[in-house]
Every structure is written in C-alpha cells, then in structure tokens.
C-alpha cells in the first residue's frame, strides 16, 4: 500500500495544462460564475461554484458538491477570488488557507494560522491545476495569518495586485490590516507592502475592488471595517477617496448596528451600467443579499433588493466572474448537467460495491461513508465514442484510473496519459451479458476486475476471472 501511494503521489505531483483557445474576455458577457465556500461543515471549506443568467438568481453547480478540494496546508479553503487574465486565456483561484471544521479556534487561526494562500490555475475555467501554497505574509513581522485574498490586474504596473488581511503588531497595535504584493504569474511575488490601515484600533479583513472605467472613477473599493465603507480611485495603488458607507440603508459591519454583514463582493450587470454589491448577512445566518447602484460615484444611489435567489447552498465569502458565451458553455458543460450518482456492484459478490479508501480502490460491503462508493459516469476522458470515466462524488475531479495495472483514485491532471488510464469501454458482461464489463481503453486486452477484493486491470480468460470482471451500475 505504501509503495502504491508514494508512486501515486509522485505521478500526480505535476500538472499539464490542457490547451484551450482564448476565452475572448472582450466578447459580450452572457452569464455569471460565483466561486464560494459554504461554511464550517466537514466539506464546507472547499471551492463551490454557482451560476446565474441574470446576476441575481443563482443555481448551484455540480449538484451542490465542491468542484475543487484543497490537499495542501490546512486542507481547507475560504474566501476564494476568481481572477481572469486581460487576454482571457488564463484564470486563477486564490483562497484563504483555513479549515475551522478541523477544530482550529478562531484565536489560533488569527494569531498562529497559515500565512500562505492557496492558488489554482486554469486555461479554460474547467481543468484546474493541483493547488499550491504561496507564503505571501512571510515577510510581515509577526504575521499571524493571511485571510480573504483578492487580486486585480493593474495596467499601471502591467501585473496583478494581490491583497489580503494579516493580523500583526505594528506601531504598538495588533489588528488586521490589508497588505499587498505584485505578481505576473501567481508564483513569484514582490515583498509585502501595507495597503490599508484604518488607524486607531479599527481592523479590516474583507475588501474587494471592482473596475468601472465608464463611471466617475475607474476603481471602487468596498471594505468591511466596522461599516461597509465605499472608496474610489483612478489608480489601484494610488490615493483613494472615501465616498461614504451604507449606514443609510441600515447596513454595517458592526460599528453601526442594524443588519451586520461582511464579505463585500462586487459584480457589474452584463450589458448595462449597473452594479451589485453582495453582502453576507453572517450575523443572522441569512447568507448573501445584494444592494445595487446605477451610479457608484455616490453611496446614496445604492438600494436594497428582494428579487434574488441564492440556490440550495448557503454562499459564503467569494467572488463573481462575468462569463462570455464560450466560458459559460464550458462551465455549464462540465458542472451544469448533473450526471446521476451510481454505485458499481460486483457480479460474484453482490453485497460488495466498488469504493475508494485512502486513494486505493476495492470492493466492500456496507461502505461508510456511503459517498466513498458513489460515482458519476462521465463520457470517457480520452474522447473515444462508447467509453466512460468514473468520477468520485465526494472527491470531485478525482477519477478511477489504473497505474501499473492497479486501480487508484487520482485527480485529473489534464494529461493525455491520465485521460487514457481513466477511460474504459463498456461492453456486455463477460460472465452475464445483462451486466457490464469495462475494457481498458489503452490496454484493450485487459479488463477492470477485482482480485482479493482489490481492483486492477488484467487479461481475462478463466470463468473465475470473467466473474471478477463483471459489474452492474445501480442508483
């Protein structure tokens, strides 16, 4: 087992980008993608996606299950930011490395937590790299954490400004302040610089910038700093003008009472000069609500809305990306249609089902948790007609694939080798034609079978082997 896991980890350690045409970021936008987490449940602090056509009503993608899992750092993520390159040919997700569900206290997380952020990279919004850690706060003296990251392209410096909150001692006061670094590739960074400090004892954790070039200012910033403060500037790293806050709407971040919110999240409505600012009503547990404006130059133009819907899951601090038709088609093609959930039943041990355990694959009875034996049958990753691939339900993006003829559960690294190893041709059952056998795509003389309850691909010649290689999909 140990050798198998070591070999698997070595195999999946690299990521090969799947070529894709430019996302044509300048094409008209047709939809919206929301990246978020859902809370402190066992799998709540991972990456979830939701989709909207109108920017107000959201549908959970991937059946409400996470689309990406963090396997680095704390193995949990919060506050994801979606970033698109100016050319529309590269995307990143940057998130807080934090998993409260593991038993971490908020005090430990803020004062002795991870100073790294978690980054995924993609060329098409669908195939994502393995997550990696970037220790952005390492250069901040006494840094206790790195929370709520955001990133924006800065044409003045021809790179990205990544900004986040770190709790540290400065000028005799320990509190959260916003820091930033610059990067062109989300791999190498400048030294951290102080970005926002409200002075006195007021901390600030959540802040997000939107570009609105046809408005009174080019950039607008919403920050949770006791109030929801709105600022404006014509330069990302220049001086900012305070426009006011949302206290006139009975909304604050605690200092002003009323509806206490956090996690401000901007979006512009497609095709018109109107913006939404989403606010997480965490104090009452009601989730996100939008306020909208047709003139960001004055906070008096914001109004609350009731004509919205957040879908089946509770959305927590995230970000919204406007989608072109090509981007929307890819995202919905991958996560919009929910393939049914199946189990794979053994023919000659009908109380046993295919399941994963510590990345290995076997047949077992009474599988617990039940999701370890649940898969979505996808069209074969290798693209051949009549083939299938098996994606794990509770490890989305992980597929059954063979490695040295042994079956393992592994994340799709986007390579042609992985696609071939994870693709099988469904044929009439070798032991019973009303059941199914699965022929290896790249080793067609071998079939999926169990041996001592472990799954592998083998040549099949005997009656016993034919029975071992016969299965049935059940719901």
TrEMBL record:
Taxonomy of the source species: Bacteria, Bacillati, Actinomycetota, Actinomycetes, Micromonosporales
TM spans (from-to): none
Name this protein carries in UniProt: Alpha-L-arabinofuranosidase B arabinose-binding domain-containing protein
GO biological process per UniProt: L-arabinose metabolic process
UniProt cross-references to InterPro entries, sorted A to Z: AbfB_ABD, AbfB_ABD_sf, GH43_arabinanases, Glyco_hydro_beta-prop_sf
GO MF entries: alpha-L-arabinofuranosidase activity
SUPFAM superfamilies cross-referenced by the UniProt entry: AbfB domain, Arabinanase/levansucrase/invertase
Organism, scientific name: Virgisporangium ochraceum
Annotated ranges, domain Alpha-L-arabinofuranosidase B arabinose-binding: 343-472
Family annotation (Pfam families): AbfB (PF05270)
Coiled coil spans: none
Signal peptide as annotated in the record: 1-25
Keyword annotations of the record: Signal
């Amino acid at each position: 087992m140990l050798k198998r896991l070591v070999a698997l980890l070595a195999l999946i350690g690299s990521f090969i980008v799947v070529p894709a045409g430019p996302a044509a970021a300048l094409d008209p936008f047709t939809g919206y993608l929301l990246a978020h987490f859902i809370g402190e449940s066992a799998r709540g602090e991972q990456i979830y996606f939701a989709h909207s056509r109108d920017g107000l009503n959201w549908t959970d993608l991937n059946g409400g299950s996470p689309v990406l899992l963090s396997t680095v750092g704390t193995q949990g993520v919060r506050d994801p930011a979606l970033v698109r390159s100016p050319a529309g040919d590269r995307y990143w997700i940057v998130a807080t490395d934090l998993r409260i569900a593991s038993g971490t206290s908020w005090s430990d997380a803020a004062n002795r937590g991870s100073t790294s952020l978690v980054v995924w990279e993609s060329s098409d919004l669908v195939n994502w790299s393995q997550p990696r850690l970037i220790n952005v706060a390492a250069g901040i003296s006494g840094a206790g954490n790195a929370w709520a990251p955001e990133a924006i392209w800065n044409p003045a410096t021809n790179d990205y400004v990544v900004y986040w909150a770190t709790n540290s001692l400065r000028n005799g006061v320990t509190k959260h302040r916003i820091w930033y670094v610059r990067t062109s590739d989300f791999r190498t960074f400048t030294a951290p610089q102080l970005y926002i400090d409200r002075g006195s004892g007021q901390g600030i954790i959540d802040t997000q910038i939107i570009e609105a070039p046809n408005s009174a200012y080019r950039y607008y910033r919403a920050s949770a700093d006791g109030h929801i403060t709105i600022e404006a500037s014509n330069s990302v790293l220049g001086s900012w003008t305070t426009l006011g806050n949302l206290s006139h709407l009975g909304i604050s971040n605690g200092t002003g009472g009323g509806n206490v919110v956090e996690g401000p999240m901007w979006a512009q409505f497609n095709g018109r000069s109107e913006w939404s600012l989403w606010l997480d009503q965490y104090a009452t547990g009601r989730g996100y609500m939008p306020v909208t404006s047709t003139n960001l130059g004055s906070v008096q133009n914001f109004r609350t809305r009731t004509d919205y819907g957040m879908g089946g899951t509770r959305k927590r601090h995230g970000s919204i990306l406007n989608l072109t038709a090509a981007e929307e088609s890819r995202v919905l093609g991958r996560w919009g249609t929910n393939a049914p959930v199946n189990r794979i039943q053994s023919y000659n041990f009908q109380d046993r089902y295919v399941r994963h355990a510590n990345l290995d694959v076997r047949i077992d009875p009474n599988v617990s948790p039940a999701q370890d034996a649940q898969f979505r049958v996808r069209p074969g990753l290798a693209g051949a007609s009549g083939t299938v691939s098996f994606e794990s339900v509770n490890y989305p993006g992980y597929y059954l694939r063979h490695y040295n003829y042994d079956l393992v559960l592994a994340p799709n690294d986007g390579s042609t080798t992985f696609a071939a190893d994870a693709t099988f041709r469904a044929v009439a059952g070798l032991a019973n034609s009303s059941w199914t056998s699965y022929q290896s795509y790249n080793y067609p003389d071998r079939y999926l079978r169990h041996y001592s309850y472990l799954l592998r691909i083998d040549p099949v010649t005997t009656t016993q082997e034919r029975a071992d290689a016969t299965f049935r999909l059940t719901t």
